[in-house]
Amino acid sequence: MSSYAASSLQGATMPTQAVTYVDAIRHLPAGSTLIIPDVSWAEYEQLLADLGDGYAVRLTYDQGRLEIMSPSSRHGRYTAFVSRVADVLASELKMNVESFGSTTFKEPALKQGAEPDTCFYVQHAAQVVGKMDLDLAVDPPPDVVVEIDVSHSSKRKLAFYAKLGVPEVWRFKEPRASIYQLTRTEYTEASTSLAFPGLTADMLTAVLLQIRTDSAQAVLEVFRESLRKLRKT
After folding, report:
1. Which long-range contacts (CB under 8 A, 24 or more apart) does 1-9 make?
2. What is the DSSP letter of 77?
3. Stated pTM of the model
């Protein structure tokens, strides 16, 4: 397992001796981000293997720059709620939606890798039904990637998602949710979703802000009713 000096870390207090990447993650407070330069692709892949499945941090690798973000409870609450919003959309719009959570997407040729907070297959859901693992060499990219920017910025990830061909990105940076759609090689902000007809950035903003004062179930019921009204118009 590779190690590095604590002086190469930013954003948290670490032991003075050289530590492994896994040690760094164990010491990383919730809501903090570490940026480690000069990390090889092999080291990045080894770290993914060492962590295994189900780890809580988010890793972003960009041509030698490794960013490790430890989500806060606030971040986790928003992320979990977005998945419930997608479930309501699937139910009310009669659409099949396959969620792959914070899956690691990586491209060795680009020397880049990233993990969204969650992601959904909508238009391409049928192509991933029953799959437990994804391989972008044969599988399409997700139709929607979600980034919750509570304690960090996901802007650097957008270029990578564009290279993967992700059609739509939802980005929530309090107090506003934005929808970005891929146009050729970059994203442009849009007012409505292509993946979920009728969903607007304003609607997404409203439900995400509302859970700060109301129960998630109550917010989802109001959201469900608003979708039903839209279908009748």
Report:
1. 1/46, 1/50, 2/43, 2/46, 2/47, 4/36, 8/36, 8/37, 8/38, 9/34, 9/35, 9/36
2. H
3. 0.90
Place of tokens 């979600």: 146
Give strand pairing partners of 146.
118, 170
Give 48-62 pLDDT, tens digit per residue.
Answer: 999 988 788 999 999
CATH of region 73-232, choose from 3.50.50.60, 3.40.50.620, 2.60.120.200, 3.90.1570.10: 3.90.1570.10
Q: What are the structural domain ranges in the chain?
A: 3-69, 73-232
Taking 50 as the pLDDT cut, the residues of the chain under it are 1, 3-18
71: region left, alpha or beta (phi > 0 left; psi from -120 to 50 alpha)? beta
What is the C-alpha to C-alpha distance for residues 171 and 189, in angstroms, rounded to an integer? 10
Tens digit of each residue's pLDDT (9 = 90 or more) over 179-216: 999 998 999 999 999 999 999 999 999 999 999 999 99
Instruction: Give the C-alpha separation, 93 to 123, whole Å.
Output: 13
Which residues, in sequence order, are bridge partners of residue 186?
183
Contact present, 195 and 144 (Cβ < 8 Å): yes
